[in-house]
Amino acid sequence: MRLLAAWELGLGYGHVATLAPVCRALRGHGHRLTLAARTPATARLLEHDSFDAIVRSPRYTGRVPAGETLTYGQVIAAGGLVDTAQTIALIGQWLRLFERIGPDALIAEHAPMSLLAAHVAGLPAVRLGSGFVAPSARSAGASLLPWAAHSEAALAAAQRPADRIVREVCRHYGVPLLGGLSELLMQAPLHSLAWAELDHYGPGASGFYYGPLVGIAADARPEWPKGDGPRALVYLPFDRPGSLVVARALAALRWPVLWHSASAPAIELPATIRYSPEPIDLGTTGREAAIYVGRGGYGGSAAMLGTGVPQLLLPDTLESLLLTYRLSLAGVAHSQAASAGVQAVGEALCRVARSDAIRERAAAVAGRYADYSVAAMTDLVTQDMTIAMRG
Fold it and tell me: Whole-prediction pTM value?
């Protein structure tokens, strides 16, 4: 089959990392894979054997409504689901891309407009990814702020614009009418790349879990620097707010630190912090650490969940905040705001690294997945996706 994988929303290499292992396996079974990527340069930089071709996905460049984001429908407003005329124009771009590539089926990651275009074109589609980018149909209208009290009426109002636009697009193109976003998602079978603890909507919300088959080449194994205290493995971009606060807190503690960031540090790091511009092997080097420090990015936290290492997370987006919330409820992570300052971050580092409760819980969760086989689950998800795409 000729397959089109789609990534519309989100930045960084996490979206390519989600699609790459499964697409690589599908290519191995003889299918031709084209990736429509939000930023093709990112995909070309990271992946050389997962896709036969990489093109730019249609992108919405208009204004996104300001305000609190309560539901998935509001998340994907950033993709263009804010105005009927804009959405129709985007769907037209996707339909022209379909005509040019001639796919037999669509694999959508964070790509809601491609799903709506597939419905218009009568193209079979499946969904792949974490709970945040690929929620179950019943989770589409659920709260993304579960720690806050929002009424059912408020959630329904938040979801209503997306539902209305889906219906209007169907009417415009004269295709079978969908009641709204949930029905659109229902048409594309979900293949959830998560474990229960990693589900943004809570354990069990996404049905069957294939596990976090998220990965790109991350094989750097730098030597740990000398220092006093527990080893800390850090995955924090230096161009993100708060990274310098963490660096100063770790420097003051004089712990041995390995730090990966694609962007170089803006300050001179002490000898106790070794910087690696190459992604560090979390499966091997991660197990040597006493604590993992990250921003709540899905790939890093998912990989570290399997190592049994406690996590201190400094979320800076709604997605990372929601994942941090779920991992905290699971007892394997602690959340900390970098804005609290160097002293508060240092105290949080010590608290997590010395917590027997977090360490024991993290080890228990890792033990639950000790027999998890990436190869076996990759085979299973590719088989299930192929069956779904062939109808």
Answer: 0.92
